[in-house]
Amino acid sequence: MAEYRFNVFGKLVLIRGSAGAWEAFYPGPDGKRRPADFIVPGDIAEADLLEYLADLFHEHATPRNHSVTQLP
């Protein structure tokens, strides 16, 4: 199962799964994860995850945290 990490306007988000079955989590500093308070629709392609997160959370952008980036 694939996992993708994103910095979404300063907040860490983990997306796990594949198209048709995405799960979203907020990773904690202790290594645990809690379910995110949003869903990723199943029809979102892997290549479109970053754009989807940017569109969903654009209101959270600040001058310091103004982008969404995929983390290694």
Automatic annotation (TrEMBL):
Pfam families reported for this sequence: DUF7661
Limits of the DUF7661 domain: 3-71
Protein name: DUF7661 domain-containing protein
Originating species: Pseudoduganella rivuli
